[in-house]
Amino acid sequence: MYITKVLNNSLLLAKDDNDEEIILMGKGIGHNYKAGSELNKKDIEKIFVLHDENIKKSIIQLATEIDAEYFGIAQMIIAYGIEKYNLKLMNHIYLALTDHIAFAVRRFKEGIMIENHYLFEIKEFNPKEYDIGKYAITVFKEVLGLDLPEEEIGNIAGHFINAQQDNPYSDRNKRSAKIVNAILQIVHYHFSIVYNKESFYYRRFVMHLKAFSQRFLANEPSREKIDFIYEQVQKNCKEEYECVKKVGAYMYKEYSRELPRQEELYLMIHIHKILGELCENS
Hints:
Blueprint: E1 2-6, E2 11-15, E3 21-25, H1 29-32, E4 46-49, H2 53-65, H3 68-85, H4 92-109, H5 119-125, H6 127-144, H7 151-163, H8 171-191, H9 200-218, H10 227-236, H11 238-255, H12 261-281
Antiparallel strand pairs: 1-2, 2-3, 3-4
Helix pairs in contact: 3-4, 3-6, 4-7, 5-6, 6-7, 8-9, 8-11, 9-12, 10-12, 11-12
Domain PRD: 65-170, 171-281
Pfam families: CAT_RBD, PRD
GO molecular function: RNA binding
């Protein structure tokens, strides 16, 4: 294995023992070697085999356009995720995350803010990846001296969700997150309320919606006898009942299945608590 070109402080273009062209990644590896040098394998953190000429061109362009420091930051964040959570990641995350970091920093310095509407869902459904995103924010602060916004936690987490070989963000989890978000929106617009996302009842509501959506998607049968309680709650919470009927209409439109009465009951109770808390604090 020998070097054909130093791309930057963290990337080298090389050829392996079979004369295959490869990209080598390692912290500070570009400082220690030059073209024609033999390599110490201990200095190599990642190897990319270049079977596609277009991929090779993209990597070389990325290496020449992006500050090598961002490659090092990406490696720190990825190492944290692997060491703490034993994640099995696809190789593309090393370059994709580096590219994202460079873009996010440039955007931040230009004063451009992009919201991440799925931040709360990521926190609830993917706590490991959310934690990696939080760690990334601390790295940006310590290494670059930049206080990137909280939304960036979700953006970084998204890279780790998508790069996992056994992606935990399965189709069911995606559909579950869609249901949670849709019901939150229905309640929001029906009552013209602004949620206090730090409140106890809001968090309880979201946790309930997450569990409900999983039950609904799994088509779990309801066995509880709730007719009397249902009638009492419906009688005393008329507006909550009307809102839940909208939720039921949405679920039927999307999934061609009726909302079980038991689930209607629990939704009415949670919505009532949310409204009561907002009323107390207004």
